[in-house]
Amino acid sequence: MTKLHEWIENTLLALNLTDSMEQKTGFTRLGFSREEKLAHEQFRNIASSLALKTQQDEVGNQWAIWEVDPDAPTIGLGSHLDTVIEGGGYDGVVGIVAALGAIRELKRKRIKPKKNIAILCFISEESARFGVSTIGSKTLIGKVDKNKWENMKDYEHVTIRQAMEQYGLNWETFHQAYCEDNRFESFIELHIEQGNHLYQNHIDIGIVYGISTPIRLKVTAYGQSNHTGTTQMYERKDALVAIAPLINVVQKEAAEINKQSEQAFVATVSTVNVLPNAMNVIPGKVELGIDIRSVDDKLKRQFVSLVETYCKRLEKENQIEIRIDEIVNEKAVLLDKDIQQKLTNICDELKISYCHMNSGAGHDVMNMAKRWPSGLIFIPSVNGISHHPDEYTPLRNIQIGVSVLAAYLEREVGGCTTS
């Protein structure tokens, strides 16, 4: 059997469909694409080589199961293999590598578990293609909105329904991937941090307390389009000029709240749409997208109120209309405390450096946590870079993640060592 670090490297390359992780334009495997399907095929091949039973569910999630007793509880692990456009080869992929590696370690030690272990390779986790994230895990927990999803399109005007059908899935029945409450005893995901805290502080493992899901606002300013050359300055109702101060207010106030809060708080004006967006026309309509995140839901609501109050002031000062639409409002997800304590104990026993932290990004585990006790482990991202070709996590850190996950599984599934 090859050494673990060699196996990790080979598995990482195989799942990324490459012979080198150094790719100038990164990796592009969008949800329900041919590239994602090929990566899922590699997952099935590797899982089969570990003597795991593989299957695809109705929405396209791939399962690899070490089944010892159909009536025994099941411990779930997993992550995803899709990427953003020109993303890195570690986001999601490392979680699949670590889950497979942990089972490999148990088999190498000839552990005979008393519980089943299931690795889930979730489909279409990223929102890069359709603007909807975690489609696979949402479907599994029953959080499906077919009416909304059916006509959502990618940049080539392909709808989610069309993409799923092209992938070979049945739109009428994909919701049957739903799992009953007794399907899992617990679930755990390993992921790269996608931030700089672990790397900067030379910490090997992050044990995640909560996931700071967003409130997202669309703020629309309605002014008056007119000719840039013939409209006098005092006659104008420039929507862009009127709403522009909000951008600095969001930045400044969020930074101040973050200084004073026990929990991390961030807010970003992340999209701007100016209409008609012509050089010789005064902007008559401007849409700003604001992303607000924290594990403290009260802080998020307070910030929305701050934005609403400031927009009323801008309306009055500029004689324009401003509309605020709340397009996403997700409660923060707090992960299972017992699992956090078990991971803490394992890191202490293995003398692995760790810290407790929150996640600023969403992951499939945030859906699983709504139904089953769930945990999330972070390993470092070099320089905090993610969703970029320079995304990188050393093999050493992945190997540490495998050792923690393997130790967790060994304690959870019990069993004995076979000769």
Q: Strand content of the residues, in percent?
A: 15-25%
Q: State the helical fraction.
A: 25-40%
Radius of gyration: 24 Å
Inertia-based shape? elongated
How many helices? The count is 13
- Largest sheet features: 9 strands, mixed
Structural category is alpha/beta
Order of helices and strands: HHEEEHEEHHHEHEEHHEEHEEHEHEHE
CATH topology of the largest domain: Aminopeptidase
How many E-type strands?
Answer: 15
Broad CATH class of the largest domain: Alpha Beta
Pfam families: M20_dimer, Peptidase_M20
Cofactor: Mn(2+)
Subunit structure: Homodimer.
Protein name: M20 family metallo-hydrolase
SSE inventory with pairings:
Elements: H1 4-15, H2 34-49, E1 53-56, E2 62-66, E3 74-80, H3 93-108, E4 111-112, E5 116-122, H4 135-141, H5 146-149, H6 160-167, E6 186-192, H7 197-200, E7 205-211, E8 214-222, H8 239-243, H9 245-260, E9 265-275, E10 285-294, H10 297-318, E11 321-329, E12 333-334, H11 337-350, E13 354-359, H12 365-368, E14 374-379, H13 395-413, E15 416-417
Parallel strand pairs: 3-5, 3-6, 6-14, 7-13
Antiparallel strand pairs: 1-2, 2-5, 4-15, 7-12, 7-14, 8-10, 8-11, 9-10
Task: Report what the structure shows.
Homodimer. Belongs to the peptidase M20 family. Its cofactor is Mn(2+). The protein has two domains: 4-211 and 332-417, Zn peptidases (Aminopeptidase, 3-Layer(aba) Sandwich), CATH 3.40.630.10; 214-329, Alpha-Beta Plaits (2-Layer Sandwich). 35% of the residues lie in helices and 22% in strands. The protein has 13 helices and 15 strands. The strands form three sheets. Strands 1, 2, 3, 5, 6, 7, 12, 13 and 14 form a nine-stranded mixed beta sheet that branches. The protein has a four-stranded antiparallel beta sheet with strand order 9-10-8-11. A hairpin with a 5-residue loop joins strand 1 and strand 2 (62-66). The chain is elongated, with a radius of gyration of 24 Å. The model has no long low-confidence stretch (mean pLDDT 96).
